[in-house]
Write the structure tokens for this entry.
Amino acid sequence: MKPAIDFILSLGAWNWFIIAAAMGLLETIIPGVHFMWFGMAAIAMGAIVLALPLSLPVQLVMFAVLSIGLILVARRYWAPQTMKTDAPDLNDRGQQYVGRIVTVAEAIERGRGKVQVGDTVWTAEGPDMPEGARAKVTGVNGTVLIVGAG
């Protein structure tokens, strides 16, 4: 066991590049962006160790600090909630219909009925309206459109 450990320690900075390659491989196998930041920190540590001779404990502490720093920066600047898009309601189909005029497909009685949106019939809530009336979508409650007089 001792010769294997001595060999690994003799690689010096290349250990960090090997770790970075392993993190890159894990990133391609496991879905999500989990190992990329550790791999980037390992590349940075490899470059630092090539330039400056540091002891192993110092390298490990620096690697931990770099990893945490990269993760915090990534969460701050690449988080999905901070990304702007030209279609913010893309995956919220009902929200796309707010403000649209629709036709009542099944009379709304006692606050519930159905409306026709394009070629789809949606459950709707709103004031009583006869079949064929026009209504305006004012909101969404899950998969139920909230309508008002159109």
User: Anything to note?
Assistant: The two ends are 80 Å apart (CA to CA).
